[in-house]
Amino acid sequence: MAPTSLPDISSRFTFRNWMQGNYFFKEAAGELGVPGRVATHRDVKAQRDLAGGSGDHAGHMIGVQFGAPGGIENMGLQNANMNTFAPKRLQEAFRGHGGSYHDLESEWARKLKDGYRITVTIQDKYRLDEERPFVRWVQWVETTPKGKQQAAQTLDFGNFSSPQLRAARGEQPGPITNGGKGAQVISLFGPRR
């Protein structure tokens, strides 16, 4: 028996861009597919063209494991330590393994495999004169396996510079504060109203 191909759900995702004031926004939205049960569309050349040598990752707004397109419409320059796990030498400064966006995607994958449905809207916000977003806003709605739709949840991911980005730019590290133990985390954004 020949293996069956996985369904291509890439057309269920939408992408748009707009300018507002001094900012450029890039948005991706759609219902996530279950990883391992949908076709994936990674575009390695597009990732390399966007981020090659920058110290950042060409981070997918909606991960390709969820069936989203892999092209530039679904990518932004992203702090490598937010997109995946930080190298061991940086983990003390991060007060953990890093990978906060990766962790959210892993949580979505677990829930999808448990029968949830998840619809997302993700926005990268750029200053007009920059090619790197400074924040990624994520909103998602979960529907339980029994069909109960939960309230929308939101997170803001600051896309701060990283040691890798500064090294690629030839920048020297800033002064060490707090004995090199990292900074105190202060919540800047509460629930959006």
TrEMBL record:
GO terms for molecular function: endonuclease activity. Keywords: Endonuclease, Hydrolase, Nuclease. Residues 42-133 form the Type VII secretion system protein EssD-like domain. The keyword Nuclease applies. It comes from the Bacteria. Residues 164-193 are annotated as: Disordered. The keyword Hydrolase applies. This is DNA/RNA non-specific endonuclease. It comes from Alloacidobacterium dinghuense.
